[in-house]
């Protein structure tokens, strides 16, 4: 039976309160994980009490596809634990609930989801699923950064540490965000569309001569008209909402000496003076102060538990006239209609969004503002939740998920836990 497709992309990362915050550790930018886990300490296993009465191996429930990228780590992983991988049919919601109720997989100790493409067939990990988990479960480690599909509060209250893999995607997301920031200053959708799309759009409805003439006119118009509204990045202010791993990578890539932007940030927890000095970052203790100081605002913070957007008509009104906006966080954080209003009025000059409120649907007004016909100045770059999508990211997802389980079941601290504040003493 073919593996079913995954549940929809994650939407929000719960945090307490209404303010943006980063759940990432406080330290300078971290290099990407490498195959084989070179950047992660390997926890050792406790020896059995005796040769005649060895301790039973902990049981790991592996939901999703088999391992693809880290065979050496998986060899260690599968030697330390008894790994059970339910079939695709067993992972469908109804059957999965039935299997948990009847304890089909026994008293397992961990849940392992190494890929974002499979393993989510049972849908949201809500009270129905969490309450059915055996008390033996200590850790749930999954690929991906967002986890609105899992109630991490309930998991924590049940004594289960939830670990995400956002660390593995941080550099890929930051790289993509750099391109999006550049797009807002250099009007890349307009430039690309003017050079290519006139041929595609008119080839079936016009003669070759008409097509060529129209294409040349659009090309020349973009060449002349893009210049007065384009700017280099140096000495412009970059406002980061969130200074976790992604924010730190962005500050290092776009600040001095690279692109020379002036880095400003707001986070619930201020970073250390040493990190601020290293990144050349100026802290703002409230969001309005950051917005007023920024030429380009980048949203790189988790969403709040109430699901309300952070970027609204009210917050957009605080943006500098003609500023720019980039979202590589969560679509639910942005009121897209309010953003379209701000773009149409010119209060926000340009935007770039990799994530969308109703994925896989994209806001039609924002599509219109992308200007893909080549004739109009395209002021919005829209992509398909691609920022973290690299081979290296998925290598890291797989590796980090295994390492988290090995750490917790080995009696050590989890590497990337996100719900410790909900965890009962266990």
Automatic annotation (TrEMBL):
Domain D-isomer specific 2-hydroxyacid dehydrogenase catalytic, residue spans: 125-419
Domain D-isomer specific 2-hydroxyacid dehydrogenase NAD-binding: residue ranges: 223-368
Organism: Coniochaeta ligniaria NRRL 30616
Matches recorded under Pfam families: 2-Hacid_dh, 2-Hacid_dh_C
GO MF, any single term: hydroxypyruvate reductase [NAD(P)H] activity
Gene3D superfamilies: NAD(P)-binding Rossmann-like Domain (3.40.50.720)
Name of the protein described by the UniProt record: D-mandelate dehydrogenase
Entry GO CC: cytosol
Biased composition (Polar residues): 1-25
Family that this chain belongs to: Belongs to the D-isomer specific 2-hydroxyacid dehydrogenase family.
